[in-house]
Amino acid sequence: MAVGADTVIASDGTSDGTRSDGTSDGTRSDGISDDTNTSDGTKGNAAGAGRAPLQGSDQALVELFDVALMDLDGVVNRGGAAVPHAADVIARAAERGLRTVYVTNNALRPPEAVADRLTGFGVPAQASDVVTSAQAAAHVLAGRLAAGSRVLVLGGRGLREAVTAEGLTPVERADDEPVAVVQGFDPELTYARIAEAAYAIRAGAWWVASNADRTVPTERGIAPGNGSIAALLSAATDQTPLVTGKPEAAMHAESMRRSGARTPIIVGDRLDTDIEAGTRSGTPTLLVFTGVTTPAELFAAPPEHRPTYIADDLRGLLRPATATAAVPTRPAPDVPASVSDGAADGGFAATCGRWTATVVDGTLTWSSEPAGSASEPAGSASEGDDGLDGLRAACAAGWAAADAGVPVQRVAGERPPGCEGLRAPGGRG
């Protein structure tokens, strides 16, 4: 079975500890449920409505939350290069009371090394500011295995140190008879090491993967991620790993436990990890376009991948968010009530700032009001417009159409800023 967003087991992996083969009866020893609660016992948080997409705010986002649970690759850095504006925004956000905790699915480096690397990017950080998928995976392993249990580590220093810190014994060969295999991102993996993991998994070792990201952004482009290696192992063993990194509950629980956040916002560049983690936990999310996700992919996103806010980059934290709203419309006589709710002439419409997007007969089009017009919501376009209001309106209208079972088939050639690359999920561009 190929391992990816649609096939990886979605579980935090903890159980009552009675089984040594890695199977689970669904009872979790750490109390995490599918609807993860925040540290204060309330679902989601009061600073935002959590799962509702494309919300607005009269205040800058930095004023609404106490902690930004921020992804690294594609948000703060791309490979060995810093993302423009990231360091400045993080510093300015801290001055305004928003603490940043770096939550990464990359298990390669230990927190100390991640903090040192961040400092090199101009982002001063301490090890305590970093939460890694290696820590989440090791915590899950420790909840299932006896102290000192041998674990074959297919990954880098960060994963080995996390396993050791949880009182387990890292090994490298199947001949060491490990009771578990833990796999994390490591660009220096060799065929021989992957084979050792396959031997151990086939011999019955419980397989845990720190994350299932199929790709990772680098300064040279998009490269294979840990999920791609997991797919290889899955094909070789006919097994599927238990995944602990984002968007799984184990990673969010680890982030909340280590950060002490009460009203967090998740900030990231990936729909299937960062944004889905927010959807699952009821935590507001900010999607930035500095990593792997494109506006076209956002436009085609299913409900669980729709963010609360979007921005070109982290500067979106420092400004208010323009509200997106359905436009009151008149349903067509021959459209069923379940589809026509909010539809005009069988279509769907939404507005954001001065832009209105409409889907009629499968075609997405836009119209606009002049900047500063009376119909424009205060503070939406003329004050600090980030150039994404047309995209927000398009997503809202397109998502409504898709959810009603009538997805966009065509996109008009004349488009607002931010929508140049949009393609119709259900038809032609």
Structural write-up:
By secondary structure, the chain is an alpha/beta fold. The chain has 11 helices and 21 strands. It has helices spanning 86-95, 111-120, 133-144, 157-165, 191-202, 226-237, 249-259, 271-281, 295-299, 337-340, 389-403, and strands spanning 9-10, 67-70, 77-78, 81-82, 99-104, 130-132, 150-154, 169-171, 180-183, 206-209, 215-218, 221-224, 242-243, 264-268, 285-288, 309-311, 324-326, 348-352, 355-360, 363-368, 410-411. The strands form 5 sheets. Strands 1-13-10-9-7-8 form a 6-stranded parallel beta sheet, with helices on both faces. Strands 6-5-2-14-15-16 form a 6-stranded parallel beta sheet, sandwiched between helices. Strands 17-18-19-20-21 form a 5-stranded mixed beta sheet, with helices on one face. α3 runs parallel beside α4 (157-165). The longest helix is centred in the last third of the chain and has 15 residues, at 389-403. It starts with 8 loop residues before the first strand and ends in an 18-residue tail after the last strand. Residues 1-49, 332-345 and 374-383 have low confidence and may be disordered.
